[in-house]
Design goal:
mainly beta, 4-stranded antiparallel β-sheet, about 240 residues, Methylamine Dehydrogenase, Chain H, single chain
Amino acid sequence: SCDVLFYFAGLGCGTLAVLEQNEAGIVLLRSFDWNDGLFDVTWSENNEHVLITCSGDGSLQIWDTAKTKGPLQVYKEHTLEAYSVDWSQTRGEQLVVSGSWDQTAKLWDPAVGKSLRTFKGHEGVIYSTIWSPHIPGCFASASGDQTLRIWDVKAPGVKLVIPAHQAEILSCDWCKYDENLLVTGAVDCSLKGWDLRNIRQPVFVLLGHTYAIRRVKFSPFHATLLASCSYDFTVRY
């Protein structure tokens, strides 16, 4: 199976490395360079060779791992760093959402050379944009304005605003087994679970990290298992 790693290589530039894990260990299959730091990456859901990155210059890049050079396309509309990118999970559509430090999220069709829509409402940097694995056209965004927001691409404005933390929220994820359950991770070192049917208080609070939580992910195999990684240099389950 293939996995993807992205990292910074040198001052002001980034490298996308495509890695394969086999019996010999982890092998570098392909690497691509970009002229700014790469902050996030997402695999295509309809082409095993295609992935999209986003970068510090506000652009999104489409890469083909079957080719030696790239990117195939570059989309630049965000006015500040593009910090998050995700490919839709529901199979009924092939859409990409990006989140930026310019406080906007943008909807993209990879076959179209410009964004389909821009979502405004956050009052701080957007750190995470994640599609629902259950509901077509629905995604969540987490922001430095301390809110988790739920959006419907067919609706005119934000669907739901959750004041999830009293600190910047750096990450969020959807439960793979419950369409109403999300988790947020924040600078306050806590993880909180949210039921969209009742947002007055979290359904769980997980403490233990000693620095800001950078990323949180629900397990695709177990409904009650999640993992988090933090600037305290630990991964916790």
